[in-house]
Amino acid sequence: MTDKDPRSTILLQMIGEGNKAKEEFLSVGKEIAQFAYSKDHNFQYEGMPGIDPNVTWKAKVAKTAEYLETIGPALYQNNPDRRVNPKPWAQPIQKQRAAVMQDYLNFLPNECNLSGHSRKGINDALIYGAGVVWTGYNPKKKCIQSVHDGIENLLLDPSAKSMEELQWCARKRCKPLWQVLQRYPKASQLLGNYKGTDYSGSTGKVTYYEFYCVAGLHNFAGGESVNRDEEGVPYTSDEPRKYIVTDDGKVLDETEWEIPFHLDDKWPFSFLGYRFKPDCLWPVSPLETGLPFQKAINFAYTFFMEKVRCASKDVIAFAKILGDSLTTADKKRIQHGFGTQLVEFEATADNATKLSDLIQQWRFDTGLNDFTNIVAILEKQFERMTGLTEFIATGTTENQFRSAAEANLKDKNARTRFEDMRMQTETWQCEIARHEAQAARYLLEPADIKPVLGEEAAMIWGQLMPPAAEVEQQLMMQFQQQGVPPETAAPMIQEQIATLSRDGVVYQDWLLEADYTIEAGSTRRQDIQQQIDASNEFMRQALPVLMGPAQMNPMVMASAMQSLATWAKINGMPVEMQESLALAALAVAKPPAPPMPMPGQPPAQGALLPPV
Which ranges of 38-148 does DSSP label H, i.e. alpha helix? Predict the structure, then answer.
């Protein structure tokens, strides 16, 4: 590799095009983020006509922050209960593999803080319009993990109009120099003279991009100069490639993808968006349509508070002939504080027929009623644009419902947009689960599964094997080198392939074995009172039935004991009672085996015959 690597020209051009394509997306998101998080209250008013630069108080009403704090937590409250559903035609071993994968996928969320990373991704989606998590292997935890990364670090192929049309994506990284050298030791010579944007010496940081391309750069525009590898061998493969390039154009590495997500038409990230524009990759923030009204509300509060500051002063006007009898100390005492101002005017005793001709106090209208009406209109429009209605935020409305049917209709209509966002969030969680399953299947060995799920699960996990055609070709070459005739080698090859198939699985075949979902509503916090009411109603209806002939059926009684254990747990019964009911349910479901017969006696019904 040299400093004049022809690949760097193409990669740097792709970086520039990717950044340009998302400029509008980022600019709107950054502006919304200021209204949500910035401590600076002046950014909106800089250069705005009609705002006195000497005003010390400028408003930033927390409508945007209220939206995030209300909608965000409701979209993701619990770690999902993941489901791996084998195909209806699945073989027994495939169903066993699906069960083990399901157990592993449900182990990961708590172990790897999926909740925290998902919340950050959801916040990005609410502010910018999109959020992402990246899936890979965590060497410290020795497991698969999906981690959040800021949406500003994602670059997408600008020529694509949808995710299905993507030809490449890139992730911007900024790591300490020693970490980059540790990960890419062959690039030490290139990084010796690195002077990128964030570099600040031997302990400084290196900014670089991880490019994932569906094919080598020799297939892209300008790729005619990139048609040979480091040894000068012409490129002939169109396999997907990964490139590492610094922001100053140094290509640090070129490899295959660590995990072949491309075999499933996927990318290493899971993308969440709520409002998509036609023929555009970058979604729109749910807050974008409410942004003008957020600005107007802030301006209205700032204007009103300035008006109140001026109108709340008491102006005392008095004739100079009275002022002659007031000492300077008297005037200071009158004007003590912020809200009083003295004004002198010319008047004579001859013209003054009453006290009001010599002294008056003036007060001004603050315009509170007009301000209240204007702000109410603006807040109503903000709520309509964003969906943050009072009913969603507090569960109440200004007007009382006349019937339960009206309340249900209001609830359904108010939650339409919100429920759609929930559904998209759950779809995103399904995609994350599938990504983690693909990474786990490709990277983990039975030895990695054993400490987590046990020895039996590790045996079921098995090994990955190459496709049968590749295995057959390799074995045939080995037998030819050993001088074995083809007609003799053929049955031996088939026997070895059958043996390998029993103990392993081809990755491409495994991709088709199951579907990955999450249990509906499992990411939402369950209403405990609703669970108690449902459990009590079940017990009220079920107990009379269980007291009848149904109690003679062991399966019915096992189900009843399990329901009792659930009822005890929901109602907060002591742990000992919960455990005893659960054990009783297990004992009923699995009755003890009949005893072995005594010598000379016939075996009892259901008993096993002694070995011969």
Answer: 63-75, 92-111, 114-127
Task: Tell me whether residue 11 is in a domain.
Answer: yes
- Other beta carbons within 10 Å of 554: 13
If you search the block for the tokens 């990717």, which residue do you land on? 18
Q: State how far the alpha carbon of 348 is from the alpha carbons of 331, 342, 356, 358, in Å.
A: 20, 18, 13, 9
Name, of 55-64, 379-388, 545-554, the range with top average pLDDT: 379-388
Reported as a single tens digit per residue, the pLDDT across 238-261 is: 789 999 999 888 889 989 999 999
Of 286, 318, 350, the one marking the end of a domain is 286
Nearest CA to 254 among 276, 279, 235?
A: 235
Dihedral in degrees, nearest 10, Cα atoms 130, 131, 134, 140: 170
Residue 375 lies in a domain: no
Distance CA(437)–CA(450), nearest Å, equals 16
Final residue before a domain boundary, out of 246, 267, 286: 286
Dump strand ranges (E) for 264-339: 269-273, 314-319
Q: How many domains does the chain have?
A: 2
Higher pLDDT, residue 293 or 341: 293
The stretches of 114-238 forming alpha helices (DSSP H) are: 114-127, 177-183, 188-191
**Position 237 confidence tier, pLDDT thresholds 50, 70, 90:** low
Q: Kindly report the length of the chain.
A: 612
Q: Please indicate, yes or no, if residue 335 is contained in any of the structural domains.
A: no
Position 210 pLDDT exceeds 70: yes
Over range 314-323, report the average pLDDT.
64
Token digits of residue 482: 């050993």
Residue 332 lies in a domain: no
Domain of 550, in residue numbers: 528-589
Q: What is the Cα–Cα distance from 504 to 97, expressed in whole angstroms?
A: 11
